[in-house]
Each structure stands twice: as structure tokens, then as C-alpha cells.
Amino acid sequence: MTMRAPLTDLPIMFADTGYVVSTLPVLTQISLTIGAGTPTILIGPNGSGKTTLLRLAMGLASPSSGRVTWNGRTEVPPTRRAIMFQRPAMLRRSAAGNVRYALAAAGVPRADRDECTADLLARVGLDALRDRPARRLSGGEQQRLALARALARNPEVLFLDEPTASLDPAATKAIEDVIRTVAASGIKVVMATHDLGEARRLAGEIVLLHRGRVVETGPAASFFAAPHTEEARKFIAGELLV
User: Fold this and answer.
1) Does residue 202 contact residue 191 with C-beta atoms inside 8 Å?
2) Among 3.40.50.300, 3.55.40.20, 3.60.15.10, 3.30.10.20, what is the CATH number of 12-89+155-236?
């Protein structure tokens, strides 16, 4: 009997991809491959197109030109992908109730949901707060709960849109610790951040966006040590990109 390899959504490939809102180009001629392995971190100024690129990679939007493919396929339902936005909404229920809701939406059998809920809350360090109303959690705790809900989909790829924005250093470290654990488990993490320190700490690969274009990509170590483009050198130095 021939064994078929399990389906995968990786690599995700952008081929001359553009995205336009009204007449305003948000992304222009994006050619990019996101493969398995260490986290891919998207950096760039506000308005550079990071969120839009994540939405296209997730399948929440369709390109205006070019195409996006998942392991060579198009029109792939996002059953193996999950996304967490910068300001996720909390349901009016407990932390555990939020996770159970996400598990139900992901099709996890009812008999397995309690055990899965406990596992996911422990994974993000919220097991002691399982009965607390989600909307009474701190900002950092809510972000970790949102991570647990995203992980309820058991994704192959996890997209994160600035998950530590506006958090204090302790809350940021807690989120980064979860991201490291998630990446170490084999889940591909693709994350947008404006924090260069965070990018240095987490990235395996860097993608620098500016004005809707990919300016430079490469392994994080070489990107920060010896950037190839003037835009990258300026951005790393903290200078404004105009």
C-alpha cells in the first residue's frame, strides 16, 4: 500500500502579488516564499503592508493581482492556519469558556474539549485563571488567551499581528516565551512586529516591508549584522523611512 504524505500548506508563495484598496496600492509586486522552519518576522514602518500580507497569507483576502499559493495550490481552506490580530475581542465568558468555544468552532469533539482546554491554558500559562472572566484579564493575559484560542485550531501555520504591541516588558516576555514554545513544537510562526528588539530575539528569517514592497529578506543574524539595502540600514538604525 502506498502511503501518501500528509497535506501541508507550506510553502506559502506570493507570486508578483498586489493588493489595492479603491485605487490605493497597499502591496505591490510581492514575490516571497514562506517555508517551514524557524519564525518568519515581518518588520517595517506603520502602513508598510504587514497586516495585509498576513491576511493574504491566511486567505482572508484575495490579491488584486498576481497570486498566493499554499504548497502550489490555490483556494485552500484555512483549516491548517490560524491568525491572531493585534486587538482580539474577548467573549463574555471565562478564560476556559473562550477556549472551549474555539475548540468547538475547530470541530474538536465535545468529549475532548475539557482536556484540550486545560492543556491549552497551561500552554499559555493561564491555567490558574481558567475561571476568571476573560474581559477582566490584563492586556497581556488577554493576548495569551487569544493565543490559546488560535492554537485550538491545531494549526500548521500561526500568523501573529503585533501580538505584544502596547504591552509592558513582563507581559511581552510572557508572550515571547509562548511563541518560542509554539515554534519549537513545529508550528510555523509568521509574525508582524514594529519592535526590532523582539525581531532580533525571535526571528529565524526577516522580511522588511516598505511602502507595500518587500525591500529585503534574509536570515535574521545576517540581516541585522550586514543589511544589503539602504532602507534596511536606516530602519535598523532607527531612522525614518520616507
Assistant:
1) yes
2) 3.40.50.300
| CA-based nearest residue to 95, from 46, 37, 135, 55 | 135
pLDDT tens for the chain, 242 residues: list them.
344 445 899 999 999 999 999 999 999 999 999 999 999 999 999 999 999 999 999 999 999 999 999 999 998 999 999 999 988 999 999 999 999 999 999 999 999 999 999 999 999 999 999 999 999 999 999 999 999 999 999 999 999 999 999 899 999 999 999 999 999 999 999 999 989 999 999 999 999 999 999 999 999 999 999 999 999 999 999 998 87
Q: Report d(CA 110, CA 6) in Å as an integer.
A: 25
Pairing of strands 24-34, 12-21: antiparallel
Residue at grid coordinates 476556559: 96
Domain boundaries, the chain: 12-89+155-236
Give, in order, the Cα–Cα distances in Å from 44 to each of 39, 191, 224, 242: 16, 12, 14, 11
Number of neighbours of residue 237 by Cβ within 10 angstroms: 9
Helix axes 95-105, 139-151, angle to 10 degrees: 30
**CA dihedral (55, 211, 31, 22) positive or negative:** positive
Q: Is the pTM of this model over 0.90?
A: yes
